[in-house]
Amino acid sequence: MAGDIDPFENSSNQPKIVAVSLQHAGHLYNYLAAGLPLKRGDRVLVEGEAGTRLGTIEIEPHEPAQTLDLAAMRPVVRLAQNSDLRVEEDTLTREQNAQRLCVTRIRERDLAMKLVTVDYTYDGRKAIFYFTAENRVDFRDLVRDLANTLRVRVEMKQIGARDESKVTGGIGPCGRELCCSSWLRDFEAVTVKMAREQGLALNPSRLAGMCGRLKCCLRYEYATYVELKRALPNLGRRVESVQGNGKIVRQNILKQTVLIQREEDGGVVEATLADLVEVRPAKS
């Protein structure tokens, strides 16, 4: 109908959103900007699943995608004040004390678990203890002890090895700070296939990161290797080339060359794609 109005026709009237992280290199959460003069790096108060939290603006106010449900999105409460930052400092001290206490109690009970970090809510009424464990752990007595001693609600959350490395940080074999603790916000699947496609030796000690899982960086160049590999004939393929006829025994993906084992003398020669005359079906 002529009187209908497209809610996205005039984007200037649309509410803007911001992306907020609740921890360093943490997941980004969308919030309504609520008309506040926000810029990257500003500290703000937001309402999260665990209550009020202090966060950092990572992406400045911008127009939302049409697929986002703005009705389900919470607004930024306000810019953080000096009093909020003082509360944050006090909370950090409480978290450190709670962590030392929990480690002591875990040792006293000889529990097969490793405490990683403690996170207090902004109002200080709840403490979340993040831990790793190989098997199921009965920590009910530990929770009661901590709650009675600290006078707060206590929640225990088990996390994985990658999350542990993200929290604790460290230096990778490349000599740089771990990606997960410095800038990588979300973990994506990493598979052995990615290493195989890049021609890497399937050596677990070389492919594993500080967390003991496959290195996240294995996926960084994976798409490039897959794309470059499409132009090269497969291993075992029989080819004719100006360097000699034979079968492909190796691919140099980045150089875009192949090594051919010649039929006439068994020697191995390197050939570019321009050197190839014809690619023939492999012998069955």
Walk me through the structure.
- This protein has 284 residues and is of the alpha+beta class.
- Helices cover 24% and strands 27% of the residues.
- It has seven helices and 13 strands.
- The protein is elongated and about 85 Å long.
- The chain has four domains: 14-80, no CATH class; 85-159, GMP Synthetase, Chain A, domain 3 (2-Layer Sandwich), CATH 3.30.300; 166-222, no CATH class; 238-280.
- The chain has a five-stranded antiparallel sheet, with no helix packed on it.
Keywords:
24% helix, disordered N terminus, 5-stranded antiparallel β-sheet, GMP Synthetase, Chain A, domain 3, alpha+beta, 4 domains, 284 residues
Question: Based on DSSP secondary structure assignment, what is the total number of beta strands?
Answer: 13
What is the CATH architecture annotation of the largest domain?
2-Layer Sandwich
Reading side by side through the largest sheet, how are the strands ordered? Answer: 2-1-4-3-5
CATH top level assignment of the largest domain: Alpha Beta
Assign the CATH topology of the largest domain. GMP Synthetase, Chain A, domain 3
**How many domain regions?**
4
Give the helix tally.
7
List low-pLDDT spans. 1-11
Radius of gyration (Å): 28 Å
Quote the average pLDDT.
89
Shape: elongated
Q: What does the largest sheet look like?
A: 5 strands, antiparallel
Amount of beta strand: 25-35%
